Amino acid sequence: MRSTFLARTRKWIGASALAILVGLGGGSAFFAASSQMATAQVTPAAQITAPAVSVQSGFADLVDAVKPAVVSIVVEGRDQSDQFPDMGGQFNQQIPDLPEDNPLKKFFDQFGKGGGDNPQKPQRPMGRKFVAAGSGFAISADGYIVTNNHVVRNASKVTVVLDNGDEMTATVVGTDERTDLAVVKVDGVTDMPFVKFATSDARVGDWVVAVGNPFGLGGTVTAGIVSALGRDVGGSAYGNFIQIDAAINMGNSGGPAFNLQGEVVGVNTEIFSPNGGNVGIAFAIPAKTVEQITASLIQSGTVTRGFLGVSIQDVNRDIADSVGLKDAKGALVTQLTDDSPGGKAGLKSGDIITAVDGQGIDDALGLSRTIASKAPGTNVELTVWRDGAEIKIAATLGTLTEAQPTPPTPPAPPVDQPAAPVPSSVGVTLVPNAGGEGLLIQDIDPDSVAADKGFAVGDLILEVDNKAVTTATEFENAIKAVKESGRGTALIKAERSGAVRFIGLPLTKSQG
């Protein structure tokens, strides 16, 4: 179980880290193309049907029904890091003592990490050979099992331990690092108990029951409720996690969270914890995402996503005001990759994409998920806000590849300035950029609105109100034009360390 500490800082660059991908995808989106989706061949008789559950009577009947489909996954492999890869944390001999008859004990004892020392086996060097454990659940009678990618990462051997203690060797069918999902398969079975995914979305307040293998203690059941939806967890490219308060710990990774109908509503994958243990905040990948990704992995071993080829950021109130957009929604295009589908379609830096095929876009992550849900080659209609008006742009999506574009080279610092620094009306002192386009901020009034909005010395101002500026006079004329248009906020395109970002800069009366 990966641990996420939520005291993260949103820096100036912020959401532009969705960079160049729009096609990254996210939570509830259907990441795999429909033409590439498949369902495992299953034996309907093996599907588990849970009885109706009354909360007053407890969850025992539900657990009895679904527990046979939940498995423990033991992984052996080699890794070059200093910690074992399972569950985002270190085993480091922190596994509690296990009973002698526990089926996991002998796996950990091989490497001196079970319920006690094994004098027959010397400790293997850390960072090389490891044994780790996670959770999973069967989705077909013929042995397809869902788990997390980080559970089986670097695995040379995967062993599935059933609820009754039987052990079976499994092979990795496919993994998807972007969603942290994986599918493994046990061969030679035709009657494995399996569960199905929920067909309706979870709601805040719904009961959930988690079954898994925390700390190697397989078959552990915890219960709670859905605490929140659409969580964007730091370190994930996708967001849209389900937050639950059922007790989730290291080893629950890849295990299911069930609703009261015995359907899987999510795959437990991350926790928020300052100490590595349960504090009542855990995150699960929604069932719709899991179902689509695993179907693609079963069919082809990979996941294919649509690709627009633009860097984007969220639209806040300042940015919306600066361009005359009524609602602070949409995804603002900051940059386009070379020869990108978006560029070919006519998108420009500064465009705000507010809808795709008529589906509203709330933010950058929403655009990423929507584009990633489309098949490469799909024609889409983009609703774009540009120059104070709405236009439609038709685009044909490309294919998102794992290779990341090389970030732009930051501008060279000026050596000899041909002109003296010029104070501006918005609290920044500007000098021409000897290394190329734009104006460099040489100084900034710490009490100015510009400082409040995150501008800093060394930032490169490229445009004001979508107009390129290379001199202090051009900058002031652009600011003046914004004021004369009746708008109270100027849209500034700036660059820092090679990353481009738009910022809405309010123009107060005190700034002239």
TrEMBL record:
Share an example GO biological-process annotation for this protein: proteolysis
Q: Which organism is it from?
A: Devosia nanyangense
Provide GO CC annotations from the record.
periplasmic space
Record-stated family: Belongs to the peptidase S1C family.
Q: Which NCBIfam families match?
A: degP_htrA_DO (TIGR02037)
Q: Where in the cell is it found?
A: Periplasm
Gene3D superfamilies documented for this protein? 2.30.42.10, 2.40.10.120
Keywords for the protein's UniProt record, in alphabetical order: Hydrolase, Periplasm, Protease, Repeat, Serine protease, Signal, Stress response
Organism domain of life: Bacteria
Record PROSITE patterns:
PDZ
Query: What EC identifiers does the entry list?
Result: 3.4.21.107
The segment(s) forming the PDZ domain are 297-388, 426-497
| Residues covered by region (Disordered) | 400-422
Pro residues biased stretches: 405-416
- What are the positions of the active site? H150, D180, S253
Enzyme class, UniProt record, top EC level: hydrolase
Catalysed transformations (reactions):
Acts on substrates that are at least partially unfolded. The cleavage site P1 residue is normally between a pair of hydrophobic residues, such as Val-|-Val
Output this protein's name.
Probable periplasmic serine endoprotease DegP-like
Q: Which residues cross the membrane?
A: none
The protein's GO terms of the molecular function aspect are: serine-type endopeptidase activity
Binding-site list for substrate:
E76, H150, D180, G251, N252, S253
Its predominant location is periplasm
